[in-house]
């Protein structure tokens, strides 16, 4: 089985479109009952963002809107036809 570094090296040579497709395929294949471990910094950031949303001090966007903007920004055609991402609305992407 190839190791992480060799896969990363190969993946970095893909076109942007194929890199995005690979990211989506990998994210979709991650079991929802086995989320990746979060650092304390990420846990604090998530808590802060949750508090901002609950206080109404920030606005949110649907993942499908953010995804479309990112695909357009990189000139990549989005082959996905419709539907909201599995994670639901998230904070405005800082791209």
Share of helix among residues? 40-55%
Question: What is the overall shape?
Answer: extended
Oligomer: single chain
Instruction: Work out the number of β strands.
Output: 2
Give the overall average pLDDT. Answer: 82
Largest β-sheet summary? 2 strands, antiparallel
Q: What is the rounded Rg?
A: 16 Å
Order of helices and strands: HHHEHE
How far apart are the first and last residues' alpha carbons, in Å?
34 Å
Poorly predicted runs of 5 or more residues: 81-95
Q: Total number of helical segments?
A: 4
Share in β-strands: under 5%
Classify the secondary structure makeup into a structural class: mainly alpha
What descriptive keywords fit this protein?
95 residues; mainly alpha; 53% helix; extended
Structural summary, described in words:
The chain has four helices and two strands. It is mainly alpha-helical. It has a domain at 38-95. A two-stranded antiparallel sheet has the order 1-2. The longest helix has 16 residues, at 40-55. It is extended, with a radius of gyration of 16 Å.
Give a concise summary.
This protein is mainly α and 95 residues long.
């Amino acid at each position: 089985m190839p190791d992480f570094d060799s896969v990363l090296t190969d993946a970095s040579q893909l076109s942007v479109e194929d890199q995005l497709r690979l990211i989506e395929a990998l994210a979709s294949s991650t079991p929802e009952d086995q989320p990746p471990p979060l650092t304390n910094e990420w846990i604090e950031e998530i808590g802060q963002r949750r508090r901002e949303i609950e206080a109404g001090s920030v606005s949110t966007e649907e993942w499908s809107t953010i995804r479309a903007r990112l695909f357009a920004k990189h000139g990549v055609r989005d082959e996905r036809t419709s539907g909201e991402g599995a994670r639901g609305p998230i904070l405005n992407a800082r791209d």
